[in-house]
Write the structure tokens for this entry.
Amino acid sequence: MIHLAPSILAADFWNLGQNIAAAEAAGARYLHIDVMDGDFVPSISFGMPVIASIRKKTDMIFDVHLMVSNPERYIERFAACGADIITVHVEACRHVDRVLQQIRACGCKVGVALNPVTSLHTLDYMIDMVDMILIMTVNPGFGGQEYIKTSTKKIQKLRTRLNELGLNKDIQVDGGIRKNNVHVVLEAGANVIVSGTSVFSGDIAQNVKDYLEIFKKYEG
Ligand code: DX5
Ligand code: ZN
């Protein structure tokens, strides 16, 4: 199943509730929530109070992407404020195995993120522990960047590897995805598509519908 995960990083925060409601009404089921700490990545975004307040108003799947150093400090708190999926960066954890167990113990789905130059080999000893692998298609930290083209091969390789292992896991892609290049990542084997700028700029409902229409061509 292919999912669109609109990233609220690109939303208008004055109208955050309306922006989310528009995406949900148009058919988006996931909501991608980018938490940045100003240490793992250069920018700072938002955290638990924002997530807790939107949690009260929607039952979308909260897909929390932690761009945070040593995220083990916060897993329980993100689970408590409403995360459904928690994704941590391998580059940000000293003991990745332990952090993944911690996420599972909170009852959340487990995601692991790889920066653009982090090798897929990193996944070898954790693949059974995760539900979703996030292949960063930009360097994390900011919305509105250009898709890094070497990501395509990486997504293909990962999907091939998962198929060889008989594992049906989600491959999420994040960064620089637009309506005019989403076919590239779908063809490569990604099935959870994050998009910030190209969902929240202009007509949100129409953007979501356009994406879902494109997805239909790739659904079996
Ligand atoms: C980047 C974030 C992304 C970002 C994507 O660090 O993880 O989720 O919001 O934004 P666009 O779709 O604008 O590239
Ligand atoms: Zn993200």
